[in-house]
Amino acid sequence: MEQNNKKSAILISVGDELLIGQTINSNAAWLGEKLLAFGIEVVEMITVGDNKSHMLRVLHESHQRAELVIVTGGLGPTRDDLTALVLGEYFQKNMVFNEEVFSWIKAFKMAQKKPVNELHRKQAYLPEDFIYFRNLAGTAPAMVYRDNGTIFVSLPGVPYEMKSLMNEYVFPWINKKISRKIFLTKTLHTAAVPESEIASILSDFEDNLADGLSLAYLPSLARVKIRINSRAVTEEEAKAALTKAESKIRELLGDMIYGENEDSLEGVVGRLLMEKKQFLGTAESCTGGYIAQMITSVPGASQYFNGSVVAYSNEVKMDLLGVKKTTLINHGAVSEETVVEMVKGICRRLKVENAIAVSGIAGPQGGSPEKPIGMVCLAVGNVENQVVDTVYLNHNRKLNIEKSAFLALNMLRLFLQRP
Amino acid sequence: MEQNNKKSAILISVGDELLIGQTINSNAAWLGEKLLAFGIEVVEMITVGDNKSHMLRVLHESHQRAELVIVTGGLGPTRDDLTALVLGEYFQKNMVFNEEVFSWIKAFKMAQKKPVNELHRKQAYLPEDFIYFRNLAGTAPAMVYRDNGTIFVSLPGVPYEMKSLMNEYVFPWINKKISRKIFLTKTLHTAAVPESEIASILSDFEDNLADGLSLAYLPSLARVKIRINSRAVTEEEAKAALTKAESKIRELLGDMIYGENEDSLEGVVGRLLMEKKQFLGTAESCTGGYIAQMITSVPGASQYFNGSVVAYSNEVKMDLLGVKKTTLINHGAVSEETVVEMVKGICRRLKVENAIAVSGIAGPQGGSPEKPIGMVCLAVGNVENQVVDTVYLNHNRKLNIEKSAFLALNMLRLFLQRP
């Protein structure tokens, strides 16, 4: 074993686009969260430009202080991409043509039926003695190297490439090579209840939490993630405390909770439909297909999802969904009456047992005193029974759409969970 | 004038919530962009936790290298907020009660009809000799201090408080006190061409770039942003060089470029439809509504978008889109023949002049040797003319969907731009 009194991890993000604010550094946040859940604390995050001397300096500084250094970015095929070169120079390694990496690049381009060019060949010139991991979503491989008690990891900056390489190869590889703390977490997801209300329901419970346990609330659009953190000397102790806390929270919050850890609301709705062996269709106005694409983002959605009609105009609402002209005239396209007819219409048209319908004013134009921007009518159900609701949202267009879609899906979840 | 051979700016973000990934650091990106537009280059961004020794170390390092150091965060009233204390210690200043700052805090709380408490009083204990600026959106003031050729700025971490203090006070204050460079950028967006191909087309041009000009490539799913950077002594020179480079790149890349700066592909397609006073509909299988929601994410999309049919089952493809049963039997749902019929069917059904149709295998299941996962058929056009293509993608389900949607929209753009 190498002697090691260094602590924790430092993240280095490379790229001029980060320094000039063209790209927001979401990689660092993702890595911070995942590493913590893995038991490794990030103590510093550094962003530098595509600049050799700056990169060499921060590598040197991080080498002194961290047990794990993760460098993201700078691995592309163009001349502003310097990471491989700089790592080679820093560790005094020759840059050699790596046949295996080049075969991965060729296979990747071939699967896309695209040619391999000189720049791809350049991407295969890499520092000797490093370990390489195959990138299935792009051409730049991940690389790892150990020196003087520090593990260096280099990853492409494209978020989905970086994430998949971390999950597939890097976490398993560093698993036994680095000191980790016993730190378990579990996340419960709630929908449609504000953070303040959840915190107040859990207030007494939180005041009396056992040592080593803590709660964190992570609110986002119409949902709150509750992360339970459990630290202990042994894994068994940490697990027992976590399980006990979880069951108490579930008892207190009931069906406000729709899932845990990696669950998504659309995945949970899919499971409920499969259990019932029933199908779903959506009839969408202001959400413009957003609900359909959420549902179909789940693998295997064709087992319970038949399709959708996005009815952006009144003609389509009448022609394809059978909404009555009198309903549109008397109540308007944004009304509970209209969305109820949309539910019935889509159930008949697609021959499905369950439907979601949404009509609203997403903004930034189109509001009136009686029907302001952000007013959205939501309905779920079938030809016989519907549940309907009207909400008033006050975000921008994009977030009003996302929130409407999420709330509608949550109404369907509760409808499907009814005894 | 103090002697000054330091360069540019360093940003320090303070807060455990950044290191554990609970908050994405959008402040740094905002500051990077605004400072660059102001003529000050950010050369490094550092994030540290609420930890005194780490903060002192990065202050010291930044002091050596930067002309401007901006610290955000750590100014709240709770015990984990250390920035004022640490700055005081670093510059060896006494912490004194600041009557003026306390009067601002009192006025702010009074406007909210909220009481002032002990913690607010603590927020008014601040380092001597600093200059303070009033925060109209919160209780923590901004502070600035000059030492040995470096300007230090401390700002609250709440984004809207930070931004308003920067705009109102800090930019005007540093205006004459710091060396500014002329640095202009422009970003061009290309679609459906790999980074390596673009780089190879621009290779000769890039080899002969004039002094002060540089290019950066920012690839993401099926697109590449090309950022042109132009540095010069005067704004006129920088602008002239930028304009010349842009027109040369546009000449070399032609219609690979779909937009610039803040343009989105869905926005560009919307503008083309409005110019033609025509409507669009989509018929989507594997993209599941993703294209429709992209199009309707643009404000005012109802002026050119009528709706969509998401046909996830063969029945819906036949019933609502008029795809022939024989076509599905002979060629399959994922075939160029099917998507061409989907284009014609949706044009007729929604009475629109333009359509996009997509059918493919997004994965992770459903592939076969002849039709592998990632095979996607795309068609655009109208009842008379269609353009059709088949692509082979090799990402995960989510990205295969997003890339298919983007490529289909880009095909429509090229179709609409045909002379």
How does this model look, in words?
2 copies of one chain form a homodimer. By secondary structure, chain A is an alpha/beta fold. Chain A has 3 domains: 9-175, MoaB/Mog-like domain (Molybdenum Cofactor Biosythetic Enzyme, Chain A), CATH 3.40.980.10; 182-260, Alpha-Beta Plaits (2-Layer Sandwich), CATH 3.30.70; 265-417, CinA-like (Maf protein, Alpha-Beta Complex). Chain A has 16 helices and 17 strands. Chain A has a 6-stranded mixed sheet, sandwiched between helices. Chain A has a 5-stranded mixed sheet with strand order 14-13-15-16-17, with helices on both faces. In chain A, strand 7 (142-147) and strand 8 (150-155) form a beta hairpin. In chain A, helix 2 (26-38) packs parallel to helix 7 (159-174), helix 3 (52-65) packs across helix 4 (83-90) and helix 11 runs parallel beside helix 16 (397-417). The first copy, chain A, is globular and about 80 Å long. Residues 1-5 of chain A have low confidence and may be disordered. At the A-B interface, helix 1, helix 2, strand 2, helix 6 and helix 12 of A face helix 2, strand 2, helix 8, strand 10 and strand 11 of B.
Q: Rounded to an integer, what's the Rg of chain A over CA atoms?
A: 26 Å
CATH fold-level name of the largest domain in chain A: Molybdenum Cofactor Biosythetic Enzyme, Chain A
How many helices of chain A in DSSP terms? 16
Order of strands, widest sheet of chain A = 2-1-3-8-7-6
- Name the structural class of chain A: alpha/beta
What is the CATH superfamily classification of the largest domain in chain A? MoaB/Mog-like domain
Low-confidence stretches of chain A: 1-5
